[in-house]
Specification:
Ribose-5-phosphate isomerase A; NagB/RpiA_transferase-like; 30% helix; binds ribulose-5-phosphate; single chain; alpha/beta; 25% strand; Rossmann fold; isomerase; Alpha-Beta Plaits; Ribose5P_isomerase_typA_subgr
């Protein structure tokens, strides 16, 4: 199976899992990216059973609505039963790097609310130490230079994501060349920098379940 087929396979497994747990109160949190897009397609197959979804980006909301799936504002959702999303990197503790697609802040908010966070990925994303993938940080535009200097003090190489504006009207700085040995500590250090909205480390609130697709099939890891 190529990488796309692996993404499809984990998306199908997550959709089957969500379907098996649906009741009349279930609100499904839906992630952003190519793996999440496959999940959205599978959701479409049982859309009449889905009460509502909350989308982690404008693009995801557009895709859900195009399939006729109800999308509600998070503030109108009494709870999110399950949130399904991809990741750019994961370690065996289910700490993640997310935000390659720039949707990290809304993703993190949904993860914070969700009772269960199911991450889906192909097994090329599983690493021993996070940081090979550049870590995205969402930043208020006027704080760009300040945040960049603070990132250098923490030992990273900040790279401004040219021409990209988040759904929240902010910019992204990607941190390169940082071996993240203590993800929980770095997540908090970055959040302390004035001007940072949030960062793409999901270590304080990791995934609860990880469905990984590889050449030998699917593997599920839980915390
Ligand atoms: O965090 C994300 C978007 O902000 C995505 O989940 C992450 O970038 C993985 O994307 P893909 O499924 O396309 O590999």
């Amino acid at each position: 199976m190529d990488q796309n087929e692996l993404k499809k396979a984990v998306a199908k497994a997550a959709a089957d899992y969500v379907k098996s747990r649906l009741d009349e109160r279930t609100v499904v949190g839906v992630g952003t990216g190519s793996t999440a897009n496959f999940f959205i397609e599978y959701l479409g197959e049982f859309k009449h059973d889905i009460q509502a979804t909350v989308a982690s980006s404008e693009e995801t909301a557009r895709r859900l609505k195009a399939l006729g799936i109800a999308v509600i504002d998070l503030n109108s959702a009494p709870e999110i039963s399950v949130y399904v999303d991809g990741a750019d990197e994961t370690n065996e503790h289910l700490h993640l790097i997310k935000g390659g697609g720039g949707a990290l802040t809304r993703e993190k908010i949904i993860a914070a609310v969700a009772k269960e966070f199911v991450c889906i990925a192909d097994d090329s994303k599983l690493v021993d130490v996070l940081g090979h993938f550049p870590l995205p940080v969402e930043v208020i535009p006027m704080a760009r230079s300040h945040v960049g200097r603070e990132i250098v003090k923490l030992g990273g190489d900040p790279v401004y994501r040219e021409g990209f504006v988040t759904d929240n009207g902010n910019i992204i700085i990607d941190i390169h060349n940082m071996s993240i040995v203590d993800p929980r500590k770095l997540e908090q250090q970055l959040n302390q920098i004035t001007g940072v909205v949030t960062n793409g480390l999901f270590a304080m609130r990791p995934a609860d379940k990880l469905i990984l697709g590889g050449k030998d099939g699917l593997k599920t890891m839980s915390r």
